[in-house]
Design brief:
Layout (H helix, E strand, L loop, with lengths): L19 E12 L3 H6 L13 E3 L2 E12 L4 E13 L8 E4 L6 E3 L16 E2 L1 E2 L1 H12 L12 H4 L5 H9 L5 E8 L3 E4 L12 H8 L17 E2 L18 H9 L4
Antiparallel strand pairs: 1-3, 1-9, 1-11, 2-3, 3-4, 4-8, 5-6, 5-7, 9-10
Length: 262
């Protein structure tokens, strides 16, 4: 028999890559990996990935790309933190984003520790573009307490593309996991929400919901309302009620033929 048949109950066509939605506990397995390192992870590229000098919407960024893995079901995905070696300033140009040794983030025209009792004064400085996202991820991944230190000694190098310090954390934190919200974009791309990252314990789904409902927390991807991890299934488009199951108008044509005098 020249036909490679399969049992009708097996899904062998039209499936493509399996995509997931919902919150998943993930392990970080690589940061800005080379082509060879990606091949070891089962990801085959035709050329070396580009991480520096990447132009997006006319802006040039250096990318910090985290590859993360989930076990049971097994899948691998990635997300990017877009960084620039510029201090982040608001649109009016009168306030900067500040951070400190505890990765606290605040917008202010001057040192926030002189204004707010809750803001720790150790290591206060202006933050770089994208640094808030990176620090928030590191706090969740490393499970740093609210009063614990969380800062990058080589941040000046990281924003310029040298991520050696971050790559070192892959081994140092190999037993840690971080909870990520997954979505599907354009019905074919796995997407990761980067406005909030969750700790393994306690599992605070409400914090994801709070951020999603915030003024700047929208997730530009399809995800499930209950946030439970599951395989993504495309949404069926209902046919027009006026011509059900007849996109070509064949029923109308048949009615015309039925009324023909011959």
């Amino acid at each position: 028999m020249a036909i490679a048949s399969n049992n009708s109950q097996e899904a062998v066509a039209g499936g493509g890559v399996t995509l997931y939605v919902g919150i998943a506990p993930m392990s970080v397995v690589a940061v800005n990996p080379t082509q060879a390192e990606l091949a070891d992870l089962g990801v085959n590229l035709k050329s070396e990935p580009e991480y520096t000098g990447v132009t997006i919407n006319d802006n040039v960024y250096n990318k910090v790309t985290f590859w993360v893995n989930h076990v049971g079901p097994d899948f691998l995905t990635r997300f990017d933190v877009l960084m620039q070696p510029n201090h982040r300033v608001n649109k009016d140009g009168d306030k900067y984003m500040f951070t400190n040794n505890r990765a606290q983030i605040s917008w202010s025209d001057s040192d926030p520790s002189t204004k707010y009792d809750w803001y720790n004064g150790e290591g206060v400085r202006k933050a770089y573009v994208g640094e808030d996202t990176l620090l928030n991820f590191l706090k969740a991944w490393a499970n740093v307490s609210n009063d614990g230190d969380c800062y990058l000694e080589s941040i000046d190098q990281i924003v310029n593309g040298d991520v050696a310090e971050l790559r070192g954390y892959v081994d140092a934190l190999k037993d840690n996991k971080v909870r990520l919200l997954l979505g599907v974009k354009d019905e074919k791309y796995q997407s990761v929400y980067t406005k909030h990252f969750g700790r393994l314990k306690p599992q605070r789904n409400d914090l994801f919901v709070k951020e999603l409902n915030g003024d700047y927390g929208a997730f530009n991807a399809e995800y499930n309302a209950d946030l439970a991890l599951r395989r993504w299934e495309p949404v069926l488009v209902a046919p027009d009620s006026e011509t059900p199951n007849d996109p070509l108008g064949l029923q109308e044509n048949q009615a015309t033929l039925d009324q023909a005098p011959w």
